TrEMBL record:
InterPro entries: ApaG-like (IPR050718), ApaG_domain (IPR007474), ApaG_sf (IPR036767). Gene3D superfamilies: ApaG domain. This is Co2+/Mg2+ efflux protein ApaG. Residues 8-132 form the ApaG domain.
């Protein structure tokens, strides 16, 4: 059985897993708009309590255009994860090309307030061939 999550990265005991799906019903390919939904699971495999503070995304389309997105938390939340905890969320990305990719990092803080970055794995955004036009 294939795992729900296709991409993963581990930093300092924190695992970030990503699953991405093209959404034809939310895309307007005739108008040059392709839309994907991605599901992220963050797993605290460390022995420390941590809190997600910020996100940094690098979104690149098929033309090489790069969009940097920085913000507080994820989908309006700054989750606290004790050892063994997980946090899941779903978000989306629209491009003006039928493919691209995303990657980035989260900034977490430890219980003592010290920040550290956790890598978000690189993952492709690709519309199926019949949706590429």
């Amino acid at each position: 059985m294939q795992s729900l999550f296709q991409h993963a990265a581990i930093t300092a005991g924190i695992t970030v897993r990503v699953s991405v799906n093209f959404m034809p019903d939310q895309s307007r390919t005739g108008a040059g708009r392709w839309f994907w939904v991605y599901h992220i699971r963050i797993e605290n495999g460390s022995d420390e309590r941590v809190q997600l503070q910020k996100r940094h995304w690098r979104i690149t389309d098929a033309n090489g255009m790069v969009n940097i997105v920085d913000g507080e938390g994820v989908v309006g939340e700054t989750p606290v994860l004790s050892p063994g905890d997980t946090h899941d969320y779903v978000s989306g990305c629209e491009l003006t090309t039928n493919m691209g990719n995303m990657e980035g990092f989260y900034t977490f803080t430890r219980a003592d307030g010290s920040p550290f970055e956790v890598r978000i794995p690189h993952f492709p955004l690709a519309a199926p061939a019949e949706q590429a036009r």
